[in-house]
Amino acid sequence: MRRLPPLSALRAFEAAARHGSFKEAASELAVTPTAISHQIRTLEEHTGVALFDRQVRKVVLTEAGKALYPVLRDGFNTFELALQRLARPQVSQRVMISTTSAFMAYWLAPRVARFRALHPGIDLELHASDRAVALDGAGADLAIRYGRGEYPGMVAEPLFSDRFAPLASPDLGAASIADLHRLPLVDFRWEHQHPSNPTWERWFAAAGLAAGQIRPQLRFSDEAHAIGAVLAGQGVALLSLDLLAAELADGRLVQPFGPAIPGHTYHLVRSAGHAPAPHVEAALAWLRSQAAVAARLPG
Hints:
The chain is of the alpha/beta class. It has 2 domains: 7-87, Winged helix-like DNA-binding domain superfamily/Winged helix DNA-binding domain (Arc Repressor Mutant, subunit A, Orthogonal Bundle); 94-296, D-Maltodextrin-Binding Protein, domain 2, CATH 3.40.190.290. The chain has 10 helices and 10 strands. It has helices at 7-19, 22-29, 33-47, 63-87, 101-108, 112-118, 200-207, 223-231, 245-249, 278-296, and strands at residues 52-54, 59-61, 93-99, 122-128, 142-147, 154-167, 185-188, 218-220, 236-240, 261-271. A hairpin with a 4-residue loop joins strand 1 (52-54) and strand 2 (59-61). Helix 1 crosses helix 4 and helix 5 crosses helix 8. The radius of gyration is 33 Å and the shape is elongated. The mean pLDDT is 87. Residues 5-62 form the HTH lysR-type domain. This is LysR family transcriptional regulator. InterPro entries: LysR-type_TF_proteobact-type (IPR058163), LysR_HTH_N (IPR000847), LysR_subst-bd (IPR005119), WH-like_DNA-bd_sf (IPR036388), WH_DNA-bd_sf (IPR036390). Keywords: DNA-binding, Transcription, Transcription regulation.
C-alpha cells in the first residue's frame, strides 16, 4: 500500500519549485501564498526534511528539494500527456497493405500521397514481400497478390491483368529482335513456378525463336532487382508493361520490339471472416479507383 502525502501538497511543491516563488505558485493554482506555504510544510513534515530555504524575498530549493523536484515535474508532465491523449478523439486509423516488392516500388508507393490527401485520418502501413502474409489485421488488412486467383478462404477480386514484353533503357539502342544477340538478357526467379508464368521461354515461343537460342546472362532472385538493373542499363528484361507504365511514359524505359505476352492478374485479397471496417473499405475503394485510372491511360 502506497504511503504518499496529499496530492495537493505535491502539486504545491512542484509549482513553487518550478517558479521559485510561493506567490507565483499560488497564482497558478488559484490559492493564497499562505496556503502554498502550509501545503509545503505538510510535505516537509511527511518527508522529515526541509525542501526550501525560505529567504527574505525568495525561496531556494535545498538539496533534498532539488532531488525531489525533477521526479515530481516529470510525473506531472506524464499525467498531463496521458490525460490529453484520453481527451483527444482517436481520428487516426491504420490500414496495413501487403504486396510484392516490385508492385510496391513501381505501382503502389508512387501513388500513396493521393490516398493521404483523400484520407488524412487513415495511416497506411505498407509491407513488401513476395511471400504471402496472414490477413488477420495483426499481419495485414489487405493484400495485392499476383497470380491466377487461387486464394482459398479469402475474398479476392481482380484489380488488373498485365502484359509482358522486352524492356530496356533507351541508352542501349535496342531496335529489333536481332539486338538480343548483342545485349545482355536479364531474368528473375518466379516465387511460384507455373507453366503460365510470363517467362523468356514463353516469349521466345511467341516470337518464333528457339528457347535455347539465347540464354539469360544476368539473373536476379526477385523482379524488383531485375527492374532496377534494366533501368540502370544493364540489359533487356521481360517485364510488365502495366507495372512500368510510368517509366515507359517518361522515357526511362522503352519497348524496342514485341511481341507482348499475357501475364497474370493482380488481385485485391482480404479475409473472408468478416466485413471490412470503414477505414479498410476506404483503402479498398481507393485501390480500385487507382487501377481504373491506370487502365484508362494510353499504352
